Amino acid sequence: MNALAHAAGGSTPASLRPFLAQLPDSFWMPAQASSAAGDVDTVFYAIYWLSVFFFAVIVGLMAWFVVRYRRRGPDDVAGRTPSHNVALEITWTAIPVIVSAVLFVVGFKGFLNLATAPRTAYEISVTGQKWQWFFTYPNGHVSNELHVPVAQPVRLTMTSEDVIHSLWIPAFRVKKDVVPGRYNRTWFQAETAGTYPLLCTEYCGTGHSDMLTSVTVHEPGQFEVWLDQESNLLADLPPAEAGAALVKRNGCLQCHSLDGSAQIGPTFRDLFGSSVAIRDGGTIIADENYIRQSILEPAASVVAGFEPVMPTYAGKLKDQDITTIIAFLKTLSGLGGAEPEAQAGPGPDDSGNDGAAAVTEVP
Ligand code: HEC
Ligand SMILES: [Cu+2]
Fold first, then answer.
1. Residue nearest to atom 32 of ligand 1 (CA)
2. Which atom of ligand 1 lies nearest, measured to the CA of 303?
3. CA pair distance 143, 171, nearest whole angstrom
4. Looking at CB atoms within 10 Å, which of 69, 159, 272, 327 has the fewest?
5. Given ligand 1 and candidates 162, 250, 252, 331, which is best to mutate, with the most ligand atoms within 8 Å of its CB?
6. Lowest mean pLDDT among 19-33, 256-270, 300-314
7. Which residues span the domain enclosing 187?
8. How far apart are CA 49 and CA 47, in angstroms?
């Protein structure tokens, strides 16, 4: 498979299309794809059928009494009715107490189970950040989609860079808040290989709903193969292609375009080597150091006309990654030597590109 397509392919909406139709789903519920899903659904359906039962009994009796004891004429006077019945009152207190106690015990056991990962669990760190997820595997590999082995407990240790997020994998019946300044944990054991949606259920900010990605459960033995391949994927590619893959994979394109149009952030087209107007006044030549600083400390020099909303990638992108991204950005302004036609026809927002290029290009 083409390596670039491979790197980008997983995040296409196509992999999320079977949102409700991957395994045989029930009327209410997505597929049960984890070891906890069956228990969670049992409690759900117990509460559901209990509610249906009592709804039918109470509303049915009410309707029947309305008809049966209706006033039949002007002379129909209400008779004396008992105001007290100890046996009846004990019954209608005891039954709900027993029912809720049973539900509490079953629910609490499930809650403890979901909160306590087996000691042998495979650990993946999760970081929520406006507006995407980062999953870090024990070998240091970082991905935007979650990949896990089948039939093996996986613990997620989760924190947030900014606001409260909430990680939800409906098919696993797993949901937990991801809070800045602390580590929350959850775990699951996926039972059925496949791809399932993973989303953020925190809806207090504009972009949480964009935090829709997927969890891929690999067949036995395939997870290690995947991790190995992905971790070495970039090392095997020419730097500019590896940079292109990283830019896609890290969500840069949510805010930056490649075609010259300004989005939430400035376009990458013809950025390298240009002179950038800074909000606090002055201009900076977009050389390697400027790009590196923009990625690690975005607030250090904010581009005029844009808001300082870019998240820092410090700790997420290694120096090697940044070097490949720079190599990719060079190809977008014709300075990497890969696209001579870009040099011939610079973009409309080109600002002194050619002059700066000669000064800043470093072999
Ligand atoms: C949430 C939106 C967002 C994401 C995601 C994002 N950026 Fe940005 N970026 C911005 C904004 C807004 C600016 C302009 C304001 C500033 O300089 O901080 C910017 C500025 C930049 C600049 C300076 C651009 C210039 O014209 O001078 C570079 C380089 C850059 N980003 C690279 C990246 C890379 C690489 C990634 C991915 C690893 C990325 N950005 C992810 C929003 C984003
Ligand atoms: Cu979120």
1. 295
2. 17
3. 20
4. 69
5. 252
6. 19-33
7. 15-65+117-235
8. 6
**What's residue 81's pLDDT?**
84
Number of structural domains found in the chain: 2
Is the CB–ligand 1 distance for residue 252 below 6 Å?
yes
| Ligand 1, atom 16: closest residue by C-alpha | 302
Average pLDDT (153-169) is 94
pTM exceeding the 0.70 threshold for the entire prediction: no
Residues 153 and 289 in one domain: no
Nearest to 199 by CA among 179, 171, 218: 171
- Assess whether 160 and 306 both reside in one domain: no
Burial, 181: exposed, middle or buried (Cβ in 10 Å; 0-12, 13-18, 19+)?
A: exposed
Going through the chain in order, the beta strands assigned E by DSSP cover 122-129, 132-136, 142-143, 146-149, 153-160, 165-169, 174-178, 184-189, 194-200, 213-218, 275-277, 283-285
DSSP 210: G
Which ligand number lies closest to the CA of residue 256?
Answer: 1
* Domain boundary residue, one of 235, 260, 275: 235
User: Does 254 share its domain with 184?
Assistant: no
Indicate if 342 and 225 belong to the same structural domain. no
Ligand 1 contact, 217 CB (< 6 A): no
Residue 206: predicted pLDDT: 83
| 231 and 253 inside one domain | no
Is the C-beta atom of 332 inside 6 A of ligand 1? no
